[in-house]
Design a protein that fits this description.
The protein is built from 17 helices and 21 strands. It is of the alpha+beta class. The protein has helices at residues 14-29, 41-45, 70-79, 130-140, 180-184, 193-197, 203-206, 250-258, 270-276, 307-315, 319-326, 355-364, 388-401, 413-418, 447-451, 464-474, 479-497; strands at 50-54, 84-85, 97-98, 101-108, 111-116, 158-163, 166-170, 214-220, 223-228, 241-246, 264-265, 282-297, 330-331, 376-382, 406-412, 431-436, 500-513, 516-517, 520-521, 527-528, 533-534.
Length: 535
């Protein structure tokens, strides 16, 4: 039971007050709907594909390199093939499972040899060969692609194909180690060279064409419809298909699961977990994810172009309060990457809650007690990530307490998505909440993507020191040397300059019908349903 403040003394410390407000809002928001209202017995008894409900909308452009949208990553996980997969379990985060590749061997510092699986076909009937890997690598490294994922532009490495099932990657002209491609092999979906020839506005943008267990059929409103691919190299899946549907309201997703209209739902709220644990016929999947949740600063415009002010804001935020609100949906961490990413370490200099240090830095930045700061807009979303509104209100109150004139702007997912990225003159607002996830232990999928001046994504930061530190760890001659560079140079430097503030590591909570078996959920939320069954 949640108790209100003591009315006799009318006192409550700040921690209890802020936690109380968030908890009351969550409880009242989850308790008023009769789930029977949503029940349709005829629908529940129909034979149908695996129905997965997503918390995020899609972009409408199916080019895998044209977006950074998690819902489309998840859809690609059903349709596309990857050279390797990384289960990224906490006990063995570096484990590699070969898929389209049968081996990846680093021959020397700048040369990588990839051997490919034979007898694989794309959904359009074209055979999968080395030319598709070469085209994918080169296309994925184009600077204009939103999902540019390789350690350098296409002119920094060379891909050759001695035969149809061998790929050689040479990074000598880029000056960095070929080992950078090893972790990245599980992140880039392999596209058809024929599709890539059509360019960004050709077949790539119009539909997905992969080698995975399910083939893309159509987009039907908010529903992405996929059917089992009989020609899948591991054998046709048992379920006839997958429908991946956007349902932005968390309560509706939960009720759909309870009533049998959905088989899998994502992004459970903590109080929903407590409810579903008591329900027969429902099971839960909990996984520490590769996703950290961040407060991203707009570093490309005032006032957060000043690192002193960014660090002051970080010292105003009590992350213990946020973790109390997140409950089972979050794990404490003190770095810019998840603990299951390569190179993670708890940083000694990671900013912690310290009002005195906040005030000292405010004064040093020229804003004593926050005087002279403009009104600051903090943008967050609702309906996708758990508890964003609740902890957003706490962060806003904590910043205001230290003199930051912050206004919280809570937006539905599509509107928030439109405002997410940096643009000329700086992105909308001054701070924005967002997570970042990638199906690979590779740390540069977060660090270089967001903090190098060639990319900068959300923050818009351009900082020569950070660029140099990012390049140093990328160019290290071995994984051991790279880890040392990450842990002793780059990560501590980011903690000093804080272009973004990592609040916690997400714990992915999925609800499933108990009759769904054999579904593997990766720690980025993508799913392997190739061996899934439904009773």
């Amino acid at each position: 039971m949640i108790r209100p403040p003591n009315t006799e003394t009318n006192t409550m410390d700040r921690r209890k007050f802020l936690s109380y407000g968030a908890a009351v809002g969550a409880t009242f928001g989850a308790a008023r709907i009769n789930p029977d209202f949503f029940f349709t017995s005829a629908h529940a008894q129909e034979a149908r594909p695996l129905m997965c409900l997503s918390a995020e909308n899609i972009t409408g452009n199916w080019d895998p390199m044209a977006h950074t949208t998690l819902s489309q990553f998840n859809i690609e996980g059903f349709v596309m093939g990857f050279l390797t997969r990384h289960p990224m379990l906490p006990e063995n985060p570096d484990e590699v499972v070969y898929e389209l590749a049968t081996s990846i061997e680093q021959k020397d510092a700048t040369t990588l040899e990839i051997k490919l699986r034979e007898g694989v076909t794309f959904h359009d009937g074209e055979p999968f060969t080395a030319k598709d890997v070469k085209a994918t690598f080169e296309y994925g490294a184009q600077p204009e692609r939103a999902r540019q994922v390789y350690p350098g532009m296409a002119d920094t490495f060379e891909v050759t194909t001695p035969d149809d099932y061998t790929v050689i990657v040479d990074t000598a002209k880029g000056g960095y180690g070929a080992g950078m491609f090893i972790f990245l092999a599980s992140y880039l979906p392999i596209m058809s060279a024929k599709d890539i020839e059509g360019g960004p506005n050709g077949p790539l943008s119009q539909r997905l064409n992969g080698t995975g267990p399910f083939r893309f059929v159509e987009q039907r409103g908010n529903d992405t419809v996929m059917e089992a691919f009989d020609g899948y190299y591991r054998g046709a899946p048992s379920v006839p298909g997958v429908t991946y549907a956007f349902v932005g309201d968390a309560t509706t997703r939960m009720l759909s699961l309870l009533n049998g209209q959905a088989d899998v739902i994502e992004r459970l709220e903590p109080e929903q977990v407590a409810t579903l644990e008591q329900e027969e016929g429902i099971k839960l999947n909990r996984a520490v994810s590769v996703e950290n949740k961040y407060l991203w600063f707009r570093c490309s415009k005032p006032p957060f172009d000043n690192p002193l002010l960014r660090k002051a804001a970080c010292h105003a935020i009590d992350r213990e309060l946020i973790n109390e609100i997140m409950g089972t949906a979050g794990e404490p961490s003190s770095n810019f990457i998840s603990p299951i990413k390569f190179g993670y370490i708890d940083l000694d200099n990671y900013p912690e809650y310290d009002p005195d240090e906040c005030q000292r830095l405010l004064a040093e930045a020229g804003y004593p007690n926050g005087e002279g700061l403009p009104e600051l807009e903090y943008i967050t979303s609702v309906g996708f990530y758990p508890k964003t509104k609740e902890y957003g209100e706490v962060i806003t109150a904590l910043l205001q307490e230290q003199g930051f004139p912050v206004k919280l702007n809570v937006m539905e997912v599509a509107a928030w998505n439109e405002r997410l990225y940096d643009r000329p003159g700086g992105g909308p607002g001054h701070m924005i909440d967002c997570g970042w996830t990638s199906a690979s232990p590779e740390p540069d999928l977060v660090l270089r993507t967001h903090f190098h001046s060639s990319s900068k994504r959300i923050t818009g930061i351009v900082d020569p020191e950070i660029d140099a530190a990012l390049d140093e760890q990328r160019d290290a001659p071995s994984l051991e040397a790279r880890k040392e560079s990450l842990q002793t140079n780059l990560m501590p430097l980011l903690a000093e300059k804080v272009p973004a503030y990592s609040l916690f590591t997400s714990v992915l909570m999925h609800g499933l019908r108990a009759d769904v078996e054999g579904l593997f959920i990766y720690p980025d939320g993508t799913m392997d349903a190739s061996t899934a069954t439904k009773a």
